[in-house]
Amino acid sequence: MKKILIIDDQRDVLHLLEKTLKAAHYDVLCLQFVPKIQDILQEDPDMVIIDLLMPGVAGYTLGQELINSRKGNKPRIVLISGRNEDILRQKAEDIKADGWLAKPFRADEVLTLVERLLS
Questions:
Q1: Where are the domains of the chain?
Q2: 96 in helix, strand or coil?
Q3: What are 49-101's pLDDT values in tens digits?
Q4: C-alpha dist (Å) from residue 7 to 13, 66, 108
Q5: Up-side HSE of residue 48: CA atoms within 13 Å toward CB?
Q6: CA nearest to 105, candidates 12, 34, 25, 1
Q7: Which end of the chain has the least Cβ crowding within 10 Å, N or C?
Q8: Helices then strands (H, E): number in the chain?
Q9: Which of 19, 16, 2, 3 minimizes the C-alpha distance to 51?
């Protein structure tokens, strides 16, 4: 079973993503805070979904650190944000993230992206 770590400070976003991904048989871990990068790597997720703007740290900074420390293509990095879609897309491109989702998003959009990246 593929493991997905979701980091977002909004409980409703975490709940929606968790419900959607668990229904599709993914192992899901949700955090409302930004953990240490070593703790993320220790969990060995196949994918990390990170909110672009988190209290105290920018999600794209964490995403960049994970990309710089990954082995091969694991973990895949996806940025999410309710900010301007063009800014989100540019930040994802800047750090070479594997994907991005603009809030609000639909469950089918999440599943399509996750399945494409983890297949």
A1: 3-118
A2: coil
A3: 999 888 777 888 999 999 999 888 889 999 999 877 888 888 899 999 999 99
A4: 10, 13, 20
A5: 29
A6: 12
A7: C
A8: 5, 7
A9: 16
Q: Which two tokens stand for residue 111?
A: 């599943």
- State which fold the 3-118 domain adopts: Rossmann fold (3.40.50)
Question: Tell me, what amino acid is at 97?
Answer: A
Token pair of 31, please? Answer: 């955090």
Token code pair at residue 4? 């997905």
Task: Give the residue carrying structure tokens 């975490």.
Answer: 14
The pLDDT tens digits of the residues spanning 9-52 come to: 999 999 999 999 999 999 999 999 888 889 998 999 999 999 98
pLDDT of residue 73: 80
